[in-house]
Write a structure and sequence with these properties.
By secondary structure, the protein is α/β, with parallel strands linked by helices. It has 31 helices and 21 strands. The protein has a six-stranded mixed beta sheet with strand order 7-6-5-8-9-10, sandwiched between helices. The protein is globular, with a radius of gyration of 31 Å. Pfam families: malic, Malic_M, PTA_PTB. This is NADP-dependent malic enzyme. Keywords: Multifunctional enzyme, Oxidoreductase. In the C-terminal section; belongs to the phosphate acetyltransferase and butyryltransferase family.
C-alpha cells in the first residue's frame, strides 16, 4: 500500500518539474515577426520611449510594463514553516507567489532571491531595484530583520512596499476576526485577546487589531519564553515591548482565562483543550501555525462545541490565506499609482474581504469548492480564494482608500467603471455583455426557468435579482427548491423573491393542459396526453406560460438534448411571425469574440435557411455593440469547388445580394481565409470585407458545432449562448455544460426587449 505522504511529495515534485522546470516563463506582449516590428521594439524606435520617460518619469507606466510589475523579494531566512533554508531553496515559494499574482490579479511578477543576510544591505539592494518595479512585495525574511528592511525601503522608495508575511496575514486575520465577532455577537472594544508568537506576522496582526478598535491593554502577548511583560529582558525587541503588560502573570495558562480571542502564530500543540475551556463563552480560536496548528480544530470543537475556529490549513473551514489579500491590494495600489500602501488601504482591504464573505456565495467559488459549506457563519468567515468577485470588490476599495488618503499619483475618475473593468478581467463575458445587461434593465421582463431545481438555475436566479430588473419564475417542487436554497446559502426563497410553478400541484394546471391541448389537438395529442405532458415536461410548461402571456421568455436545456427541447419550443411558440432558424454561439477568445452559427437548429440548411441565419446573426451580434462581419465558411473557396456545401453557400450569398443589406458578408471561403485579411486579399483582391470576420456561418450543423466545441475545449473559449434566433427572444435553449454565470448571461439576453434588436 502506497504512503499518502510520499504520493503527495512525488506529485508536488512532478508538478514543479514537468512539462518544463519551474512555474514561470516570460512572454512578449507585442509582435516581433518582421523588420518593422524589430525597428519599433528595439533600435531605433525604442529611443522614442526612452526620451519620453526621461522627460517625465511617470511615462514609464505608459511605455513599459513597470506599472504592472511587482518584485517578490526574499533572502530565504524564514520560508513558510521551513525556516532559514537560504535564498536558492526559497525560489519555488517565490515562483509560486508570482503565479498567484498573475492568476488572481493579472499582475506580472519577478521573483528575486537575494543571498544577503544583513538587513541594511538587503534593503539597499531592494531600493536600488526601484526603477524596474511598480511595487515591492517582501517575503519570508526573518524577524526582526524584516522590520528593518521594510522601514528602510518605505523611507527611501516612492513605490508601494508591502511585507506580506506581516501585513497580508494581518489583513486576512482582521477580516476573519471582524466576521467572527459578528457571529459571536462581540465588539472590538470589549474583547480580550491572547496571542502566541512574537514574530513579524504576530506583531502585525496585533497592530491591525488595534487599528480596528481593540484596546491595547486587552492584548496579552506570549512567546516561547512566556508572557511579554514590563521589565522582561529576555528575547525582547521594540515591537514586542509595545504589548508588554504590567502584571505578575507569566504563562499562557495564566492569561488565557476569560479570553475572547486566541490568536496563534507560533507552533503545534501550544494551546491545550483545558485552556480552550478557560476562555470566555463562544470563544474564537485562530490557530494559524502551519502545517500543524496550535490546537487541532476537532479538539477545540470537542472542548467547546460553539467555538469559532480558523486555521492556516485548506482542509479545515476558515483558512486564513494571504492570497485573499496581496494580489488585490497590489492591484488597487498599482492602478492608482500609489506611492505607498498605508493604513487606510489596508483597512479598506479588511472591510472588502469581510463584506464579501457576508454576501451570497458566487457560483464560481461554489464550483471550485464543491461539497464545502459556504454560507456565512461560524464555518465560513472569509471568502474562498477562487471567488472571482475579490478582484472587483477589494481592489476597488483599496484604490478608493488610496485616493481619499492622498497617496494616489494617478487617481481614477470613475471607480464604477474601474470595478466593471476588473470584473471583466475575471468574468470573460462581463465587458461584452454590458450593453446587453444595460438594455435588459429597461424592461422588467419575466423569465421562466424550466429546470428550476437545478443548482445553477438557483444561483442564476439569485444573480438575476441582484444584477437586473428581470423577474425570474422557476418551475420545480417548492420543498426541493427551498431546501437547496438553504443548503447553498442563497438568500432567495420561493414565493417571496420569485414566482414558482409546481408541476405536481399548481392551481393553473387545468388551464395549462387545456392550452397545450388546444395547440396540439390536431397533431395527435389527446387530452390525457396533454395532461401528462403538463405534469412532467417542464420545457413544455414554460413554453405554454410564454404562449399564455404569463412569462416573456423561456430558458431551458440545462439537461437533456437540444433538439428534444427545440421540439416543444417549436410546437408551442412557432407562428407566422416566429420560427427557429438558427442557433448562434458567441465564443469569447483571448483576442476577442467570434460568433458561430448554426450550431444546433438545422442540420443541412438550404440557401434560404443560410441567408436567414446570416440576417438573424447580424441583428444579434449588434446587441453586443459589435458590427457584424459575416463569413460563409466551407472547404470550397470563392467557387473553386463544386460540392454541395459550396453550392448552397454561394446560393445563399446570391439571395443576400438580391436586396440591400446593412451588414458585411463574404464567402464562400476557408476559415483561415475568413480570419486572415492578408490571405483573403491574395486570393480575392477585391473582396468586400476588411479585417477579420467575426461571424462564421457553416453549411451544416456538424461543422459549426465542431468548431464551437474545439474553441471551447482546446482554445479556452468561453461560450455565451446558444442564442436561439427567430423566436422573437421568447425562448432560448442552453447546453447542459452551461454555468450559473452562463445562465445569467442568457437571462440578460432573454430579458432584452425585442424592439432593441429587431
Amino acid at each position: 500500500m502506497s504512503d499518502p505522504n510520499e504520493t503527495l511529495r512525488m506529485a508536488a515534485l512532478n508538478y514543479h518539474e514537468f512539462p518544463k522546470p519551474g512555474k514561470l516563463e516570460i512572454r512578449a506582449t507585442k509582435p516581433l515577426a518582421n523588420g518593422r516590428d524589430l525597428a519599433r521594439a528595439y533600435s531605433p524606435g525604442v529611443a522614442e520611449a526612452c526620451l519620453e520617460i526621461k522627460a517625465d518619469p511617470a511615462n514609464a507606466s505608459r511605455y513599459t510594463s513597470r506599472g504592472n510589475l511587482v518584485a517578490v523579494v526574499t533572502n530565504g531566512t524564514a520560508v513558510l514553516g521551513l525556516g532559514n533554508i537560504g535564498a536558492l531553496a526559497s525560489k519555488p515559494v517565490m515562483e509560486g507567489k508570482a503565479v498567484l499574482f498573475k492568476k488572481f490579479a493579472n499582475i506580472d511578477c519577478f521573483d528575486i532571491e537575494l543571498d544577503e543576510p544583513d538587513p541594511e544591505k538587503l534593503a539597499a539592494i531592494v531600493c536600488a531595484m526601484g526603477p524596474t518595479f511598480g511595487a515591492i512585495n517582501l517575503e519570508d525574511i526573518k524577524a526582526p530583520d524584516c522590520f528593518i528592511v521594510e522601514r528602510i525601503c518605505r523611507e527611501r522608495m516612492d513605490i508601494p512596499v508591502f511585507h506580506d508575511d506581516q501585513h497580508g496575514t494581518a489583513i486576512v486575520v482582521g477580516a476573519a476576526a471582524k466576521n467572527a465577532l459578528h457571529v459571536a455577537g462581540k465588539r472590538w472594544e470589549d474583547i480580550k485577546i491572547v496571542s502566541t508568537g512574537g514574530g513579524a506576522a504576530g506583531i502585525a496582526c496585533l497592530n491591525m487589531l488595534v487599528k480596528l478598535g481593540v484596546r491595547r491593554s486587552n492584548i496579552w502577548l506570549c512567546d516561547i519564553n512566556g508572557l511579554v511583560y514590563e521589565g522582561r529582558a529576555e528575547d525582547m525587541n521594540p515591537q514586542k515591548a509595545e504589548f508588554a503588560q504590567k502584571t505578575d502573570l507569566r504563562t499562557l495558562d495564566e492569561v488565557i482565562e476569560g479570553a475572547d480571542l486566541f490568536l496563534g502564530l507560533s507552533g503545534p500543540g501550544v494551546l491545550s483543550v483545558e485552556q480552550v475551556k478557560k476562555m470566555a463563552p463562544r470563544p474564537i480560536v485562530f490557530a494559524l501555525a502551519n502545517p500543524t496548528p496550535e490546537i487541532m480544530p476537532d479538539l477545540a470543537r470537542e472542548a467547546v462545541p460553539d467555538a469559532i475556529i480558523a486555521t492556516g490549513r485548506s482542509d479545515f473551514p476558515n483558512q486564513v490565506n494571504n492570497v485573499l489579500c496581496f494580489p488585490f491590494i497590489f492591484r488597487g495600489a498599482l492602478d492608482v499609482g500609489a506611492t505607498q500602501i498605508n493604513d487606510a488601504m489596508q483597512i479598506a482591504c479588511v472591510d472588502g474581504i469581510a463584506e464579501l464573505a457576508r454576501a451570497t456565495t458566487s457560483a464560481e467559488a461554489a464550483a471550485a469548492y464543491q461539497g464545502e459549506p459556504m454560507t456565512f457563519g461560524a464555518d465560513y468567515l472569509i471568502p474562498k480564494p477562487f471567488d472571482p468577485r475579490l478582484s472587483g470588490i477589494v481592489s476597488t476599495a483599496v484604490a478608493r482608500a488610496a485616493m481619499e488618503s492622498g497617496v494616489a499619483a494617478r487617481p481614477i475618475e470613475d471607480l464604477d467603471t474601474y470595478k466593471a473593468k476588473l470584473d471583466a478581467s475575471v468574468f470573460k463575458s462581463a465587458l461584452l455583455m454590458r450593453p446587453v445587461f444595460e438594455a435588459s434593465k429597461k424592461d422588467a421582463r419575466r423569465i421562466v426557468f424550466a429546470e428550476g431545481e437545478d443548482e445553477r438555475v438557483l444561483r442564476a436566479a439569485q444573480a438575476v435579482l441582484e444584477e437586473t430588473s428581470e423577474q425570474p419564475i422557476l418551475i420545480g417542487r417548492p420543498s426541493v427548491i427551498e431546501a437547496r436554497c438553504e443548503r447553498m446559502g442563497l438568500d432567495i426563497r420561493p414565493g417571496r423573491d420569485f414566482r414558482l410553478v409546481n408541476p405536481e400541484d399548481d392551481p393553473r394546471y387545468r388551464d395549462y393542459w387545456g392550452s397545450y391541448h388546444e395547440i396540439m389537438k390536431r397533431r395527435g395529442v389527446t387530452p390525457d396526453l396533454a395532461k401528462a405532458v403538463m405534469r412532467t415536461n417542464t420545457t413544455a410548461i414554460g413554453a405554454v406560460m410564454v404562449h399564455r402571456g404569463e412569462a416573456d421568455s423561456l430558458l431551458c436545456g440545462t439537461f437533456g438534448e437540444y433538439r428534444w427541447h427545440l421540439n416543444y419550443v417549436s410546437q408551442v411558440l412557432s407562428d407566422k411571425n416566429h420560427h427557429p432558424h438558427g442557433a448562434l454561439s458567441m465564443m469569447i477568445l483571448e483576442d476577442g469574440p467570434l460568433f458561430i452559427a448554426d450550431t444546433h437548429v438545422r442540420v443541412y440548411p438550404s440557401p434560404e435557411d443560410l441567408a436567414e441565419t446570416a440576417m438573424g446573426a447580424a441583428r444579434h451580434v449588434r446587441r453586443f455593440g459589435i458590427e457584424p462581419k459575416i463569413a460563409f465558411c466551407s472547404q470550397s473557396q470563392f467557387g473553386n469547388q463544386g460540392e454541395d456545401s459550396g453550392k448552397r453557400l454561394r446560393a445563399a450569398i446570391a439571395l443576400l445580394d438580391a436586396a440591400p443589406r446593412d451588414f458585411c458578408y463574404e464567402g464562400e471561403m476557408n476559415i483561415d481565409t475568413a480570419l486572415d485579411e492578408e490571405l483573403r486579399a491574395r486570393l480575392l483582391p477585391d473582396n468586400r470585407m476588411e479585417g477579420a470576420a467575426n461571424v462564421l456561418i457553416f453549411s451544416n450543423a456538424d461543422a459549426a458545432s465542431g468548431v464551437r466545441n474545439i474553441l471551447k475545449m482546446k482554445g479556452g473559449g468561453l461560450e455565451v449562448g446558444p442564442i436561439l434566433m427567430g423566436m422573437g427572444n421568447r425562448a432560448h435553449i442552453v447546453s447542459p455544460s452551461i454555468t450559473a454565470r452562463g445562465l445569467l448571461n442568457m437571462a440578460a439576453i432573454a430579458g432584452t426587449p425585442v424592439a432593441t434588436y429587431g
